[in-house]
Amino acid sequence: MPDPVGVQIVDVTKSFGDTTVLAGITLDIAAGSVTAILGPSGCGKSTLLRILAGFEDPDAGTVRIAGSTVADRTGTVPAHRRRVGLMPQEGALFPHQDVAGNISFGLGRMAPAQRAAEVAHWLDVVGLQGFADARPHQLSGGQQQRVALARALAARPRVLLLDEPFASLDTGLRVRVREDITAILRKSGTTAILVTHDQAEALSLADQVAVLLDGRIAQYGAPVDLYRRPASLGVARFVGSTIEIDGQAEGGVVTSPVGTHPAAGAVPDGPVTVVIRPEQATCGPGAGDAANAVVIGHRFYGPQTVVRVRLVDGTAMELQEAGHSTTAVGESVRVQLHGKVLAFPQT
Ligand code: ADP
Ligand code: MG
Questions:
Q1: Which among 264, 196, 260 is positioned nearest to 226, based on CA atoms?
Q2: Distance from the CA of 49 to the center of ligand 1, in angstroms?
Q3: Most CB atoms closer than 10 Å: which of 21, 309, 324, 330?
């Protein structure tokens, strides 16, 4: 049986003045899943979340949450009656209230003893036992985000929306905090929608990723499928690094200056842009006929070196080598591709 639908978005459009931000968004989000909406800055991610939360009305289209319609052409259900939580970019804790006060915010009316028990429960869920009396400024950025999450979850939303929740954290902290928070979301079984412009974040955290480009969902799928089988060159570029060279497709096989390789997915015969993921390409010694490139430069980054080569047809290409490169500038080398290659028709 398919998972019950947590959120259903059907043909939602939204313009501000003459600018169409959402040009028809259709998306089914399974209950209990963690879904990422990935798109560049300014593509309408926050607008879509605000429509789901009820802070903004769509121009057209339908939104259903856990089976009930909250927006369609007949009207909208106000935000406070949707049971949708929104966790903003900066945790936005109340600075003059302690952690318990912040978490209590979402609890509504209840007896003091029950309130204390609820606060203790959510502190336990987010791993901050003993912090009830702390003030936000006494906490690290990661701890503040966990309090914000506890506050959002305490209101028991049917759907929790997270708007770039890790963007304000330092790089070192970000990976830890986002893994902690996703683990908590999974454990709590909450339907969560996270928006981000960070492809690594979307791919590593979410069960499903919707790529939002030019006002539309360019592709919706599991992270590994988006990465290996992007539906367009735009998606391929947005979900990972690409090395792009010209090639020719014929009968599902692609020929380029680095050889002949099976295409990943169907591609019509004719000129194509061959898209290579950095981890697919290696460069090793090659003399005489085996050589297909010359090394023209190196950039050392510590764990890896970017090796710049010029292919026989004159195309420059950058490859990654683990650690320090064993090649020298001016050396003839052989570039090899592993696995199937992505290819998109050139128009
Ligand atoms: P993202 O969250 O993906 O960065 P937003 O949803 O915040 O993008 O914004 C998408 C576009 O809509 C931007 O060009 C932004 O300037 C515009 N926009 C957002 N909200 C409003 C508004 N209330 N009035 C006018 N323009 C808006
Ligand atoms: Mg935004």
A1: 264
A2: 11
A3: 309
- CATH, range 242-345: 2.40.50.140
196 lines ligand 1 (CB under 6 A): no
Whether the CB-CB separation of 216 and 23 falls below 8 Å is answered with yes
Chain mean pLDDT for the chain: 92
Which residues, including other chains, have CB under 8 Å from residue 260's CB and lie 6 or more apart? 253, 254
Say how many Å lie between the CA of residue 166 and the centre of ligand 2: 12
Per residue in 145-178, pLDDT tens? 889 988 988 988 999 999 998 887 777 778 888 8
The neighbourhood of ligand 2, an ion, using CB within 5 A, equals: 46
Q: Where are the domains of the chain?
A: 5-233, 242-345
pLDDT in tens, 126-137: 889 999 999 999
**Residue 156 structure tokens:** 């028991």
Domain 5-233 carries which CATH code? 3.40.50.300
Q: What is the pLDDT of residue 91?
A: 61
Give the Cα separation of 30 and 27 in Å (integer).
10
Sequence-distant (6+) residues with CB within 8 A of 336 are 258, 259, 281, 282, 283, 284
